[in-house]
Amino acid sequence: MSATPSNVGPKAGTVAVQAAGKSVELPILSPTLGNDCVDIGKLPKETGLFTYDPGFTATASCKSAITYIDGDEGVLLYRGYPIDQLAKESSFLEVAYLLMNGELPDARQMGEFDHDVAHHTMLHEAFKNFLGGFRHDAHPMAMLVGMIGSMASFYHNDLDYDDPEERRMAAIRMIAKVPTIAAACYRHSMGWPLRFPRNNLPYVDRFLHMMFEVPSEPLVLNPVAAKALDLLFILHADHEQNASTSTVRLVGSTGANPYACIASGVAALWGPAHGGANEAVLKMLAEIGTAKNVQSAIDRAKDKESGFRLMGFGHRVYKNFDPRAKIIREMCHKVLEELGIDDPLLEVAMRLEEAALKDDYFVQRKLYPNVDFYSGIIYKALKIPTEMFTVMFAIARTAGWMAHWLEQQTDPEFKIGRPRQIYTGSGIRDYMAVDKR
Ligand code: SDX
User: Fold this and answer.
1) 209, 236, 239, 315: which one is catalytic?
2) How many Cα atoms are found within 13 Å in the side-chain-facing hemisphere of 346?
3) Does residue 142 surpass a pLDDT of 50?
4) Is the per-residue pLDDT at 155 higher than 90?
């Protein structure tokens, strides 16, 4: 696992800050790609000043060599490889190796990685007890958080974070078991018996088999569905310091068990402002119903009082098309055609995108479709239920979360994350007895 490059350091000079009658020169750090950053480490000591940036809109939390996004140009690189090339040429498991190790595997390395993942897909039988404790109608993301968190109870005491092989095995176990857990959550909600992973199947086929195979008849795996899901997993595998990855890093910074870190990432991903948007998009499209209702949806999204947002639109970083959304939009047409599905929601989505991209409100705010806008239409075509959409996102993002956890463990600047605040509460005051209040 490659540590973050040490060559990222003060190269572009300094910036002077005058405050409280003091002046301090702050070093500017230059990245391989992207914006220079001001290192404010010595600001409090030299001037007594903190910085304030709710939502971390302009604050780098770490140095990382895993993924780079150019939001203005709509560029996404995994370890320097453009997402459209990886989408065309690679597989999800190869991308998981790349994210974790920093380089594409040769044939031997890929064979070993595939073998290791395939032979860690099973769950301890005690997992069934956890699963049995959930109501059949529990949201699968709630089950996923609980089940992944419980993995920490199976692999904790003997986990030595200082041992690279132990860290590698934690990543292998997580990437291997998350599809098994996800499929188990789905089957619990359906009241079906669980299915064991078939090690002779490729990663995505193995997952689809665990999801949909029923005892009464053998499952015929559709290569179009498997290829589409593998591609969606590649596109969702990592995305720099998004909310859920930052959560994994913050929890990881305390030295918490890696499975507990991933459970926290799943919890953060669930929110409709983040990974939960793919489920919310499909519900929004279904609610709009037909193309003739598109303009009223646009008008509602522009009305601050409505509290309604166009789900699947906008992004903190992309102020241009999300490159993943472009690939998924093209995939939509191809997959629905190959599966012989005519989904009216695709027409609604396309009309909605067309109307928004012509509307000044969206143009001025640089709001474009993001990764979640079209993905749900493909998941629906693959017969994945809406409530499982964000679980699909979590399966893929587990590769990125583990890559960031591994990178963090060897980061020379590793320290516990502990933001400051602007205190707006009461000044100091004495306790008052209840009869005096
Ligand atoms: C993901 O970070 C990542 O990389 C995330 C992700 C990943 O791979 O990990 O890419 C995955 O989470 C994609 C985003 C999925 N979420 C949605 O699709 C939900 C809808 N979008 C938004 O809620 C919003 O766009 C965010 C959360 C994605 C980004 O929010 P920001 O950057 O905090 O932007 P903002 O809320 O400050 O919005 C800026 C302006 C505001 O209007 P003004 O106050 O300037 O008048 O744009 C408006 C917002 O009201 N706006 C929208 C809108 N998104 C922003 N208005 C209508 N519909 C929207 N979708």
Assistant:
1) 315
2) 19
3) yes
4) no
